[in-house]
Every structure is written in structure tokens, then in C-alpha cells.
Specification:
Oligomer: heterodimer
Structural class of chain B: alpha+beta
Number of strands of chain A: 0
Helix content of chain A: over 70%
Radius of gyration of chain B: 33 Å
Shape of chain A: elongated
Strand content of chain B: 5-15%
Strand content of chain A: under 5%
Strand order of the largest sheet of chain B: 3-2-1-4-5
Largest interface: A-B, 32 and 32 residues
Order of helices and strands of chain B: HHHEEEEEHHHHHHHHHH
Largest sheet of chain B: 5 strands, antiparallel
Chain lengths: 484, 358
């Protein structure tokens, strides 16, 4: 019946234009899944797509490097469970193993067991998208919309997924909940699930809006429903309607961090920095220990407003909460450097850099803090290491050049900057610096004049170029007099 | 090729296509002029729909008339269509001539820009009926100086999403060569926006800096320096900002403002670059003796700095302290041998000393 309805839907409307490839499969169960999906039998579609994945896996297709997931894809729940348990015994923090075990539990109809398996991963600082999604599915199955909505909102703050099976878990539970009779249907939760499915098929946006409006009418999580309404309106290209909905969400719950953050995003897009700041601050105050909102507020304070004293308070509290949080250490170090507390900045940045030596931006801040206290040789060494690790990275060469200048090694600075531009450096400020170095360091007057003229051609009115070009021309005239 | 009935391509058709192309091209150009050199006038909003309708009607009538020309002798229908063509072309002509007038008015205008602080009251875009580009949109602005006065302006396609209702903007108005005031631009009111931010977040460094840039770019140097002093009172450690701003003031030949913003920094721990910028600003603003003092301080703090010596040498030379200038220039040349200007200056000063009677 469902498949027939699907055929009718395709005949009448065709396939939705932006349907994700996960829903368009070539195998027989895949086509069946698509038809059931189009007929809005999402639970049936999920089961058919799972059968499609099983056949593909048995044929050796779509298997990744995770043997437990491969066994799950091949439909062997006990095999997947046994491999994942083995992996968990070796590494109790293994997120993929927990995800596989949770999926096995969900497929066996044991959502409570799935939640228990996911719990340790939910307590970590880094919030894994699929952990949050599967936990939300488990709560939905248990008839607990409050935590399910909360987890979905947290999951959708940053979407990243690689496992093909977690989408099917969400699709299946959406189908099951949608089939419930009207009064017992958790419409607010469904609105959130459709908001998630909209990522793969924009037509779910309309359904999410409908469910959200039903939820608002029923008084079922109205703030969350307005949030969904706002986000979907924004994705559909109606930013004014989106902002109005988000402000409604904030009216219903003035401490809803996600609604406040989304309102801030829309204010930012408008260029209304005051409102952006107020909303971001309220989001932070509503969830002061959540690294996500700390990061957001901290970014507004440092990069958008430059309120360094307030930023210091925020990041110091984040470091106090988690002394091994490299990002918080880096941000606090940045603030201390801007405030002129170079010694403290170096201490913080060195700790952050030890925690993650691959982060170029931490190295960058540390290098300039070292220059600030006159430790130019250390800065040169730090940037030389960067160049050794990333010889083709123009930024590494540019920064080494700046360190050379501070170490009074002008010729080497010129060579590094020239190398940076050969590698694709685009910054006009760095180009201006190179022109200055030709003049100051190498006294190559003709070259410096040409360099500044080129710069002024690219961007007329650059004050430094306007200031120095007459000086250089004067010196060229003097050089000519001297030569005669 | 001559015009023949049933001919595939005749001079008549070529003429119709050319005429149609010319009219459409001119109408598009006229619309572009209205968007670029716009005037706060209600007439335009009466004229625009009529001009659009007339251009379409004219194209249609041109085509029908030409087809009828090839069919048979003139009759009352043809006469009516001819009148319609004339009326439509009249409206299009008025629109084009009006745009031409605005074009000349703006292009020949060499006058100054007057800022009119305003607030966005409404934004509308004419939605296309059958998809494609919206032909035009408009914005309604209320003047902050004269709250009762609202103006409506045409919006260019690139401006449609740039503004929001309630936003503070500045309308850059110019007098016009033919005394028709026109709008050179609608930009965000950075002064009002920065002040609004500072009311809520008084320590927002970026807002202070934006305010300084805004005043400086508009040639309001004293106010820019006041704002910079406000910023430096909160962030006294940002000496680099002060030096860069002093540099801007120097380029704008406002060294006195440079002196004002650098002065408080000289009370802090001694720093060669601050002393050098301060000394230079003092010397450039006519206080050469004070300037020399601070430049001496800068080379004392950083004896390897060529430019400190360079500026000190120049200032001492201007003060007539020739022997001291020679000694400083000589030190400068040891730091950067062969620097042409110093070599020439040094030669001239040495000659002057030799010529001086004992």
C-alpha cells in the first residue's frame, strides 16, 4: 500500500530536487525504501534502506574501517555486539564502539540499554553528534520528549555524521511517532526530528513548520517549537520571519540558550552588533559552563567587540572549569597578550601549545607574545619549526619574516616574505611590509618605489605608501646626485 | 536588401529591431541612472511604473505596427495604434530625458558631500511576476534631523539585503551641478552604531577604534583624537594603536593631534617607538626643541634604530644645531651605510661648517 502511494507520489510530483543520495538507492530494497519514504512511511522506509545496506555490505560495498559497524551493516547484530564489546574492553572511551552497541540495543528494542551505553560518551566535554542523536532516539522511544528535544537541539548545533545507520534510526523513530494518534503524538519532538531530516531533504522543512505550529497551538514545548520554526524559516530564506519566531521562543523561555544564540546569529547577519551581543551574553548566562556558548560569547567579546576585560573574566572561568581545555587557554592567552600581560600570555599559550602542537593559531599567538617580551630568537625558532613542518604554507613564511624583522635580520625577512608571495600570500599589509623592507632594510630604492606604486595601484590611498613613496623618491634623487 | 512582403529579413524588420533595441537600451540606462544618481523625489515613483509599462507597450506596438504595415492599407486601427505608439514613446522619452538631466547634474557636480543621519523605516522590493530579477526596490528613510520628514529612494540590486528596518544610516547628499540634490550613497551610520555599542559595552575596543576611523576618514581629526584618548584611557597598553594613529595624523598633516594622543603614553614605562613617534609629532607640529628631546630619548632607548637617528638628525639640523646633527647622521650611517639622503645631508652640513668663519 505504502509503495503504491509512493509510486503515485513520484508520478504526480517527481522526486524532490535536493533529496540526499542516501535515500536514492539502485537496489530493489532501496527503491522500495524510496517509495515508502515518499509515501511518508518512514519506519518502513528505514527498514527497507537497512535491508539495502545489508545487501551492499554482504556484497562488500560501503564497508569502512570499523569492523563492528561493518557487521552491523551486514545485519549481524550479535557479531557487531561482540566486536564492539571487544573494542570497548581495549578502549573504554571508544565512541564508535559505544555507538554500535547503542544501535544494536535500539534495533533489539532496548532503548534504556542504549542510553546506558551512551551515557559515558554524553558526559565528555566534546559532544559527539551521533551520540547525541542516538540518545535522543532512545529517549523518543521511551516516550521522554523533554530530554529527546534537548539532545536534538544540542546535536544540531553542529551536524557531522558518517555512519549511514544513525540517520535510519532517526527516520524510523520519526515514522513511529508520526503514526501515533493525534493527541498522543509528540508534535514538538517530531518538529525537531523533521528539522534534522531537512538536512537530507528540504521538503521536511514544511513538515517541521507544520508540526512546530501544532506544538505551539497545543502548548507542547512552545519555546523549542518556535526555535525550530525560526531555524527552518531561516533555511528557507525568510530571515525576518525567522527572527520573529526566535524572539517568540525567547519570550516563552528567556533562558533558552539555543534560541538566544540563533537570534544572535540573525542579528549578526543584519549587522546589529548591540542585539547580537545582548543575545549572546544571555545565551552564555543561561549555560555558563557549556563550552559551546562560552566559545560563542568569547568570540563576540574578543573578535567583534574587543571587550578584553569582560573576555578575560569569561575565559578565565572556562580555564578554571577545565584547566586542560586548550582552546580556552589559547583564548585567555590571546586576551592577556592584547592587554599587555605578555608573561602571563606566554605561560598560557605555551600550555595550550603543548596540549595541541598542531594548532597554527596557538603557535602564532605564542610567537607574537614572545616577540612582545623581546624573546625574538625563541619566536624565530618557533616560526622556523612551522616552516619546516609546512614548507608550502605562505602564512608560515610570512610570520617567520615578521620574527626576523624583530630579530633585526632584515635580509632574511625579505627572502621569507618573497617566498611567501611566491607561494600565494595575498595580504596587502604583508606586501606593504615587503615594500618597506626593501627601503628600510635593503635600501633598494627603485625596487621599493615600484613595490609601493604597485600597492597603490591595487589599493589607492594606503597611508603608509603615500607617506613613504615621497621619501623614497627623495632618496632616489639624492642617489642620482651622489652618482653624478 | 529591400522590403518585400513575406521576406525573411528586410530593412523594415532590421529597423524595428534596431529601434526596439535602442529604446530598451536607453530605458535600461535611464533606470541605471535613477539607481546610481538617485534623487529623493516622489515623481520617480510615479514615473517608474509608467515608464516600465510604456517601454513594454512601445515594444509591442512597434511590432504590431510593423506587421500591419506589411499587411494592408492604413485604417482606424492602425491610426489608434500609431497614437498609442506616440504616447508610449512620449512617456519613455520623458523618463530618458529626466534621467539624462540627473546624470548631468551628478556627473558635473564637484561639490562636497553632506551627511544626513537617518533611520530606515521600510524596505520594499518589487517582486518579479514570472521569476527572474526584481526590476527595482526602494527604501524609506526618516531624517534624524527633521523627524517628520521621510524620503523614499530607489535601491540598487546589490543594496536589497544590506539594510534592515530600524537601522541607523547616513545619507550622503550632494547639492548637484544643476541644483538638484542627489544621493551619492546610503551607508551604515558607524558613528551612531559605535556609540550605541559603547553605551551597552563601554569597554568595546573595536567600537572605539571604529569611531576613531570614522571621524578620521571624514576629516574630523580633533574628534578622532578625543575618541582615541577615550580608548587609550581604557586600554593604555595599546601603544601600537596610538603610534599607527599618529602616523595617520602625520599623513593628514595634523601632527598636533598626534602629540595629543601620544602625550599620555609618555607617562608610562619608557618605550623607544613611543618616544620616536612623539618626538616626530612634536617636531612636525613646530615644537622642534621638545621634539629633539624625545627623539634623543628614543635613540637612547634603542641605539640600533636607524630611523630614530634619521629623525633626530633632521630635527637638530632644522634647529641649527649643526655639529650635533652631523654626529647623529654619522651614527645613522654606521647603522645603514650608503643611505643616500643622509650622505647628501652630511656632505652639505660639513661644507656649511667649513664655510662658517672661525
Amino acid at each position: 500500500m505504502g509503495a503504491a502511494l509512493g509510486i503515485g507520489a513520484v508520478a504526480l510530483f517527481g522526486l524532490p530536487g535536493d533529496l540526499d543520495h542516501r535515500f536514492v538507492r539502485g537496489s530493489l530494497p532501496g527503491v522500495r525504501g524510496l517509495l515508502l519514504y515518499l509515501a511518508t512511511d518512514y519506519a518502513g522506509a528505514a527498514r527497507a534502506y537497512r535491508e539495502d545496506l545489508r545487501r551492499s555490505a554482504l556484497g562488500g560495498e560501503g564497508l569502512g574501517t570499523d569492523p563492528a559497524l561493518s557487521a552491523l551493516l551486514a545485519g549481524s547484530l550479535s557479531g557487531a555486539e561482540s566486536i564492539a564489546r571487544g573494542a570497548l574492553a581495549v578502549d573504554p572511551a571508544s565512541v564508535p564502539a559505544r555507538l554500535t552497541l547503542a544501535e544494536v540495543a535500539l534495533q533489539r528494542g532496548e532503548p534504556r540499554e542504549a542510553l546506558a551505553l551512551l551515557q559515558p560518551a554524553l558526559e565528555g566535554r566534546r559532544q559527539h553528534f551521533e551520540v547525541l542523536l542516538l540518545a535522543a532516539v532512545a529517549h523518543a522511544r521511551l516516550g521522554e520528549p523533554d530530554p529527546a528535544i534537548d539532545l536534538l537541539n544540542r546535536a544540531l548545533r553542529g551536524y557531522e555524521t558518517e555512519r549511514p545507520t544513525s540517520l535510519l534510526q532517526a527516520l524510523e523513530v520519526t515514522g513511529e511517532l508520526s503514526r501515533r494518534p493525534g493527541p498522543s503524538r509528540p508534535v514538538a519532538l517530531l518538529a525537531h526530528l523533521h528539522r534534522y531530516l531537512r538536512i537530507f531533504d528540504s521538503s521536511h522543512g514544511r513538515v517541521a513548520v507544520r508540526r512546530a505550529k501544532e506544538a505551539i497551538a497545543r502548548g507542547d514545548h512552545p519555546a523549542d517549537a518556535y526555535l525550530t520554526l525560526g531555524i527552518v524559516y531561516d533555511k528557507q530564506g525568510y530571515p525576518d520571519d525567522a527572527l520573529a519566531a526566535l524572539l517568540q521562543a525567547v519570550d516563552h523561555d528567556g533562558r533558552h540558550p539555543e534560541a538566544l544564540r540563533w537570534a544572535a546569529i540573525l542579528y549578526r547577519r543584519r549587522g546589529d552588533l548591540v542585539s547580537e551581543y545582548q543575545m549572546t551574553k544571555r545565551a552564555y548566562e543561561a549555560a555558563p559552563t557549556d563550552p559551546f556558548y562560552i566559545g560563542y560569547f568569547g568570540e563576540v567579546l574578543i573578535d567583534r567587540l574587543g571587550d578584553l576585560h569582560q573576555a578575560r573574566t569569561v575565559w578565565a572561568s572556562a580555564v578554571h572549569e577545565a584547566p586542560d581545555n586548550g582552546f580556552a587557554l589559547e583564548q585567555l592567552g590571546r586576551v592577556e597578550r592584547f592587554l599587555g600581560n605578555d608573561a602571563r600570555a606566554i605561560e598560557l599559550l605555551e600550555t595550550a601549545f603543548r596540549l595541541d602542537p598542531s594548532r597554527s593559531i596557538t603557535r602564532w599567538h605564542l610567537g607574537y607574545a614572545l616577540i612582545g617580551v623581546g624573546r625574538t630568537d625563541d619566536a624565530v625558532r618557533l616560526f622556523q619549526e612551522w616552516v619546516a613542518q609546512a614548507a608550502d604554507n605562505p602564512t608560515a613564511h610570512t610570520n617567520l619574516a615578521y620574527a626576523y624583522v624583530h630579530a633585526r635580520r632584515g635580509r632574511e625577512a625579505i627572502a621569507e616574505l618573497e617566498k611567501a608571495f611566491r607561494l600565494g600570500e595575498r595580504s596587502l599589509d604583508s606586501y606593504e611590509y615587503l615594500c618597506e623592507l626593501y627601503f628600510y632594510e635593503a635600501i633598494e630604492l627603485q625596487r621599493s618605489a615600484e613595490c609601493f606604486r604597485q600597492l597603490l595601484w591595487w589599493q589607492p590611498g594606503r597611508p603608509r605608501a603615500l607617506q613613504l613613496l615621497p621619501e623614497i623618491q627623495k632618496n632616489l634623487a639624492f642617489a642620482a646626485v651622489r652618482g653624478r | 536588401m529591400t522590403e518585400t512582403r513575406g521576406g525573411v529579413l528586410t530593412w523594415g524588420w532590421v529597423a524595428v529591431v534596431l529601434k526596439h533595441g535602442l529604446v530598451s537600451g536607453l530605458a535600461c540606462w535611464a533606470l541605471w541612472v535613477q539607481m546610481v544618481y538617485r534623487v529623493p523625489s516622489q515623481l520617480l515613483f510615479v514615473l517608474l511604473p509608467w515608464a516600465g509599462a510604456a517601454t513594454t507597450a512601445l515594444s509591442l506596438v512597434l511590432l504590431i505596427n510593423h506587421v500591419l504595415d506589411t499587411v494592408g492599407p492604413p485604417g482606424p486601427v492602425r491610426q489608434t495604434l500609431r497614437r498609442l505608439e506616440w504616447s508610449a514613446s512620449m512617456v519613455v522619452r520623458v523618463f530618458i530625458y529626466y534621467s539624462l538631466l540627473l546624470f548631468a547634474n551628478a556627473k558635473l557636480d564637484a561639490g562636497k558631500t553632506t551627511d544626513r543621519p537617518s533611520e530606515v523605516r521600510a524596505i520594499r522590493a518589487v517582486r518579479p511576476v514570472l521569476g527572474g530579477l526584481a526590476p527595482y526596490g526602494w527604501i524609506t528613510l526618516r531624517s534624524r534631523e527633521d523627524g517628520a520628514r521621510s524620503v523614499r529612494l530607489v535601491l540598487r540590486p546589490d543594496e536589497r539585503d544590506r539594510f534592515w528596518v530600524g537601522e541607523a544610516v547616513v545619507v550622503e547628499q550632494r547639492a548637484g551641478r544643476l541644483r538638484i540634490p542627489w544621493i551619492a550613497g546610503i551607508v551604515a551610520d558607524r558613528e551612531r552604531q559605535s556609540r550605541a555599542i559603547l553605551e551597552v559595552v563601554p569597554e568595546a575596543a573595536q567600537a572605539w577604534k571604529d569611531l576613531v576611523d570614522y571621524y578620521r576618514e571624514r576629516g574630523r581629526y580633533a574628534v578622532a583624537a578625543d575618541a582615541a584618548l577615550g580608548y587609550l584611557a581604557i586600554y593604555p597598553g595599546d601603544w601600537l594603536f596610538a603610534i599607527q594613529l599618529a602616523d595617520h595624523f602625520d599623513v593628514a598633516e595634523q601632527p598636533g593631534e598626534g602629540v595629543r594622543i601620544l602625550e599620555p603614553l609618555t607617562q608610562q614605562a619608557p618605550r623607544a617607538s613611543v618616544a620616536k613617534s612623539y618626538g616626530l609629532a612634536l617636531a612636525r607640529s613646530g615644537r622642534k626643541a621638545d621634539g629633539a628631546h624625545w627623539l634623543e630619548e628614543s635613540v637612547r632607548l634603542d641605539p640600533a634604530d636607524f630611523w630614530g637617528h634619521y629623525h633626530l638628525g633632521n630635527t637638530l639640523r632644522d634647529l641649527g644645531r649643526v655639529n650635533q646633527a652631523i654626529s647623529v647622521y654619522e651614527r645613522a650611517l654606521t647603522l645603514k651605510p650608503g643611505f643616500p639622503e643622509i650622505e647628501v645631508e652630511l656632505g652639505l652640513l660639513r661644507k656649511a661648517v667649513l664655510r662658517k668663519p672661525a
